[in-house]
Specification:
- There is one protein chain.
- This protein has about 500 residues and is of the alpha+beta class.
- Helix content is about 25%, strand content about 20%.
- Strands 12-13-14-20-16-15 form a 6-stranded antiparallel beta barrel. A 6-stranded antiparallel barrel has the order 3-6-7-11-10-8. A 3-stranded antiparallel sheet has the order 4-5-9, with no helix packed on it.
- The longest helix is centred in the middle third of the chain and has 15 residues.
- The N and C termini lie far apart (about 70 Å).
């Protein structure tokens, strides 16, 4: 695939013409075809597949009022797409121009080609790196109306019992693109990545661990999960790293097809995501002897290999460790170096914790100021609903009280509650941080705020027994008369 790549978005007809050896897509079988259904993979790999999504057009989905909450995906098979005549197929461009011409002349798949009778509504693949952040290939964004007309669908896979896929996808497993956080597509620099923020937290699925160190050994065994040719998710094992010198990508003998673009490529030993599948050989070729179309095949060590963008080719990932450490430690010199790169200042880890939260946890007032000046969201919440103020609650004291002032000046919500129903004051109480609780109350926090159990901060200190802490809470005006959900008072 050698198609010219641009930073700017371009028309869908150009994007979806994944054709030819110069395309940015990935395509070919090396040695044995190692693709398998998710249900046939090892349990730990099936777990990784839960955090993998397929990009599918909204128009490929049907909703029935008689079956609320369930969506049916277009059941047109890969073989049917190939045999479709005219403009409809040309727009999809699942195949190279030569294959399109052959199919228009009546040539179809060779007997025995795998998976061709399965539905293939997919366009690209992606995977979770945070509760609402998904990584994919940069060239997937070239599709027209990418965020408006397409959806990320989890669990598009063949049912191990019925052998069917896409008939009963749950609406709750379908997510919209909220915005593009970070992306690049450059042939000159060999950059091809994108990070998408989804419209809401993905429920019941864990973000995947990613390699943020830019290291993978030659010959390392790898596994890929994605939607080859737009088909239901497939696991592809039996591959290894081949060339490994470029700072932004490595190559491997992965059995990859169009639609695998954006697939997560895992270290087969650790399960950590090493990179994003982005480009490679043509996937289908003509068999002149049998007069049919078949998967392109190469020996394991032959052909160019399939290219995988390293996770560290994403700038936010590359600097995340340094950004978080300098924020937490108050290392202003290194923090300023990172911030000068003008990356997304609110980029967060798999727990949705940002640099601002790290600085708050460290009580670093000057670091907080720098981050807020760069536009950090003072009320961003992590995976547990905690804001920067909640993180400050653990260490807040007279020594770092300036950090509280900085956050409050930036309009941090003193009464914002996390998913346990705790305000920052209540977190300080739960952690027995008396000095922090005192400062929150003096700053105007509701002293009688309760959590989901109906308990005030007085309950936290009462559990320690009578003492100066309990007396101080009473002196500060925390009511001893309030009852929790069980009808008990703190005393």
């Amino acid at each position: 695939m050698k198609k010219v790549v641009h930073f700017a978005f371009i028309s869908s007809s150009f994007f979806i013409s994944h054709a030819r050896a110069d395309s940015t897509e990935v395509k070919v079988i090396y040695g044995k075809d190692n693709r398998k259904e998710v249900s046939r993979a090892r349990p730990w790999v099936q777990g990784l597949a839960q955090s993998t999504a397929t990009l599918i057009a909204e128009k490929e989905m049907t909703r029935d009022a008689k079956a609320p909450g369930v969506v049916r995906l277009n059941q047109k098979s890969l073989k049917e797409w190939l045999e479709t005549k005219g403009e409809q197929k040309i727009n999809r461009k699942l195949f190279s121009d030569e294959i399109v011409e052959a199919s228009n002349a009546g040539v179809t798949f060779c007997d025995g080609e795998r998976f061709v009778n399965q539905p293939n509504p997919g366009v690209c693949s992606g995977f979770l790196i945070a509760p609402d952040l998904l990584a994919t290939a940069g060239h997937c964004l070239e599709i027209e109306n990418f965020c408006a007309d397409y959806r990320w669908v989890f669990d598009f896979k063949v049912d191990g019992k019925t052998g069917k896929a896409g008939l009963d996808v749950k609406e709750e497993n379908i997510y919209k693109c909220k915005k593009v956080v970070s992306s690049a597509l450059s042939k000159a620099l060999n950059l091809d990545y994108a990070v998408i923020q989804l419209d809401r937290f993905v429920v019941g699925r864990r973000p995947l661990k990613i390699n943020s160190e830019n290291t993978i050994g030659d010959g390392t065994k790898i596994v890929m999960i994605g939607s080859p040719s737009g088909l239901p998710l497939k696991v592809t094992a039996g591959a290894a790293v081949r060339t490994n010198k470029h700072p932004f990508f490595f190559s491997a003998n992965l059995d990859a097809f169009q639609g695998n673009s954006g697939s997560a490529v895992f270290n087969a030993s650790t399960g950590v995501v090493e990179g994003i599948l982005v480009r490679g050989e043509d996937d289908f070729v003509q068999n002149p002897l049998l007069m049919c179309i078949e998967a392109n095949r190469c020996e394991d060590k032959a052909c160019r290999g399939e290219d995988v963008s390293r996770m560290t080719s994403i700038p936010e990932v590359a600097v995340m460790k340094m950004l978080f450490a300098s924020a937490f430690e108050g290392d202003l010199e290194n923090l300023q170096k990172v911030l000068k790169l003008n990356l997304w200042v609110d980029f967060y880890d798999m727990n949705r914790q940002s640099a601002l939260m790290k600085a708050a946890k460290g009580g670093q007032a000057k670091a907080l100021t720098l981050l807020l000046t760069k536009g950090a969201d003072v009320n961003l919440i992590d995976v547990n609903g905690n804001t920067a103020l909640h993180h400050l609650a653990a260490t807040l004291s007279a020594k770092n009280a300036e950090a509280l002032d900085v956050l409050l000046t930036a309009k941090a919500g003193l009464e914002v509650k996390n998913f346990a129903g705790e305000s920052p004051l209540k977190v300080a109480g739960r952690l027995k941080n008396l000095e922090g609780a005192r400062l929150f109350i003096r700053a105007g926090a509701d002293k009688n705020t309760i959590n989901k159990l109906g308990e005030t901060i007085l309950f936290d200190f009462a559990k320690e027994g009578p003492g100066a802490e309990l007396r101080e809470m009473l002196d500060l005006g925390v009511s001893p008369e309030l009852e929790n959900n069980m009808g008990l008072r703190a005393i």
